[in-house]
What does this fold into?
Amino acid sequence: MVERLHRSLHSGLSHYVNANHKNWDELVSFYLMSYRATPHNHELQSILLVAWREMVLPSTDNLNARLPKDNTDDHQRLENLKSNLRLAYKLAAKANRMSHQNNKRCYDRKAKPEQFEVQDLVYLYNPALKPGLTRKFAKPWSGPCQIT
It folds into this structure.
């Protein structure tokens, strides 16, 4: 996911950096603001999960500052925040389920079940490491082994 964000960041910044590529660091915050305000495939603004409210961007017909019309007390604001948090968690959980289902559907489309028989030679996958060894140099496959 981080690599995907970096690819989007690189692509987005490439449209706005100057000719000598020296001002990219000034543009990162603007790009991230627009990225967080954009609904992605799960229809949820990421700013909602960060700031617990939707981002209001200025437009031609909405340049005036918004002030709350009523003077809500702290208890009411706390209840509103709790309500918004519950909604954000529910939407994030739904988006996570949808993403998981989509990933499973894509995986299942390409997965093919293997049929093994007795006397077939196979490699055994065992990713467990002995204490003190590093995963970088480990050999998780052993074999060939014969199916009995």
The two ends are 42 Å apart (CA to CA).
